[in-house]
Amino acid sequence: MGCELSKLAGTKSRNQAGNDGSSPPPPPPAATDPRLPLTARQKFTVIASWKAVSRALEPTGIYMFIRLFEENAELLNMFTKFRELKTKEQQSTSMELAEHAKTVMSTLDEGIKSLDDMDAFLTYLHEVGASHTKIPGFNRQYFWKIEKPFLDAVERTLEDRYSENVENIYKLTIKFIIETLIDGFDKAQSEKAKS
Fold this sequence. Notes:
Belongs to the globin family. About 65% of the residues lie in helices and about 0% in strands.
């Protein structure tokens, strides 16, 4: 049986080959920017699967913030507009929280959609990171607090499309986004210190 299959495979590829019997080499995958810690295939996977999240930015974002505050209640105090929302119910129906969730998700959306253009990606996320230096009491380590809530929220939105492979790619992606935000934050801090 194995022999038959290999014969079939052999005839098939010969038929598709050029007239001289040699098949053209497959095109190499487009090289990814060396600054991006993802392969071309991983980048394609995250951008493609993100489309579903992109269509549900607000609910995904609200869920992400509810998870964030469940795990880090102290961070609620950073948010003057909704620090009094102590329960999940209050948080899930708050217009202010929904607005902020949408803003943060739009940042992530913009970031993921610009993975094809590292210059745009880095410039944009450095600016967002830098803007957090204006928040009184904001600590650069707070950026890491969103990692797990983000992954939980993406998993909830993607449901069965959130395979182990997709999860691993999102882990790499959010880590890279957070590191880039922190770079922007640090640069702005040191600029401030100089002036």
